[in-house]
Design goal:
The chain has 193 residues and is mainly alpha-helical. It has 2 domains: 27 residues, no CATH class; 140 residues, Butyryl-CoA Dehydrogenase, subunit A, domain 3, CATH 1.20.140. 60% of the residues lie in helices and 8% in strands. The chain is built from 6 helices and 4 strands. It has a two-stranded antiparallel sheet. A hairpin with a 2-residue loop joins strand 3 and strand 4. It starts with a strand and ends with a helix. 30% of the residues are buried. The structure holds flavin-adenine dinucleotide. The site of flavin-adenine dinucleotide has 10 residues, from helix 6.
């Protein structure tokens, strides 16, 4: 419609294959018959959308973490120090165990959201959506950073994909409501139990 335009494209730290721009609305006229849903319920619809978008972010975070584990395992099997592949050093093996544990728990949080979402009779799923997003977002950053550590100097190089995973993971703590906001949402449920 006249008045809608796209602003500058952001030069981002991560998720660089997805463009992010402002959308500008200047004196835009929307005909009444274009109304979606009921008048006065826009905020509620926006909040309901977030409840569904947050578990989707959690799924992205789990995908990033799984890739971080896969890349770490591949590298740790081939890199030999002190006479054995680093995956045989307990410190590295335990890092991988922690990464796997955290990723699996985040996956379970998404399944917990889905169980609540599809529950019969229907239940509110705001808390479960926030828990999945917050836990998975924090987890993906931690796991991707551990992958950089396992790859050592190569982990810090753009020659290997794990530094990209850290940059991509970081946004999972920010968009669709920051993880501070998720904690506010969860705290609200805890306080009202
Ligand atoms: C790549 C990317 C894509 C995006 N895509 C979209 C999109 O498609 N649609 C859209 O609408 N938005 C989008 N956003 C915006 C995004 O949702 C916001 O950036 C995000 O919600 C944080 O808001 P803010 O940037 O205004 O930070 P602020 O609200 O200014 O927050 C700054 C810091 O203060 C903390 N903070 C703020 N208030 C409180 C409080 N009350 N208590 C404790 N801590 C607080 C925050 O957690 C954060 O750490 C996108 C952003 C990025 C970076």
């Amino acid at each position: 419609r006249p008045g809608v335009s796209v602003g500058k494209e952001e030069d981002k730290m991560g998720i660089r294959l997805s463009n992010t721009t402002e959308v500008i609305f200047q004196d835009v006229h929307i005909p009444a018959d274009h109304l979606i849903g009921e008048e006065g319920k826009g905020f509620i619809y926006a909040m309901q959308t977030l409840d569904l978008a947050r578990p989707m972010v959690a799924s992205l975070a789990v995908g990033i973490a799984q890739r971080a584990i896969d890349e770490s395992v591949k590298y740790a099997k081939q890199r030999v120090t002190f006479g054995k592949p680093i995956i045989k050093h307990e410190v590295i093996a335990f890092k991988l165990a922690d990464m796997d544990m955290k990723t699996e728990v985040a996956r379970a949080a998404i399944i917990n959201f889905l169980n609540t979402y599809y529950a019969v009779p229907k239940r509110n799923y705001t808390r479960e959506a926030a828990i999945a997003k917050c836990f998975a977002g924090d987890m993906a950053v931690q796991v991707a950073l551990e992958a950089v550590q396992i790859l050592g100097g190569f982990g810090y190089s753009r020659e290997y994909p794990v530094e990209k995973l850290v940059r991509d993971a970081k946004i999972m703590q920010i968009y669709e409501g920051t993880n501070e906001v998720q904690r506010m949402v969860i705290a609200g449920f805890v306080a009202n139990k």
